[in-house]
Amino acid sequence: MHSFGYRANAVLTFAVTILAVMCAMASLSDTLNVPSPSADVKVLNVNWFQKQPNGHDEVSLALNISADLQWMFTWNTKQVFVFVAAEYETPQNSLNQVSLWDGIIPLKEHAKFWIHTTNKYRFIDQGSNLRGKDFNLTLHWHVMPKTGKMSADKIVMAGYHLPEEYR
Ligand SMILES: *[C@@H]1O[C@H](CO)[C@@H](O)[C@H](O)[C@H]1NC(C)=O
Ligand SMILES: *[C@@H]1O[C@H](CO)[C@@H](O)[C@H](O)[C@H]1NC(C)=O
Fold first, then answer.
1. What's the CATH code, domain 36-161?
2. What local confidence, expressed as pLDDT, does residue 25 receive?
């Protein structure tokens, strides 16, 4: 005959096993459901590309920036700050980063968007390094929570190319 203690223990073990299975299933469905952020930036046009009187290269680009950052919005998200930067290498610096556009997303409803824009901030190189330059566009984000620590990450889009000649 089983003692009460033995049966209680069996019931508890069973309950814990069920709980463990449920947790495993829940976290599995979580990982299956974790959507990833996506972004795409197209250079629609090089509006103009010049050497300034001071010798610095400047280019004006028409961009189509599209992104889906909706997954960043949880009960704890206050807002998300995003910026698009051009990143390239020069003989002087292994990484030059020029911010071209930024925005603040206050609501999940606004987190899936596309915008057709010219660069909001000037794309200037402190030199004359931009002709024929390969560059990356990166979409950076900072998630500002209601409580807790800010988190940040980025998506790198490689393979952009500036014209060989000024225009
Ligand atoms: C910008 O990109 C979005 C998403 O890819 C597309 O639906 C839209 O038509 C594009 N707009 C322009 C002006 O190219
Ligand atoms: C551009 O992106 C490529 C591929 O991710 C990377 O290897 C390269 O270092 C990047 N260039 C710069 C200047 O960040």
1. 2.60.40
2. 60
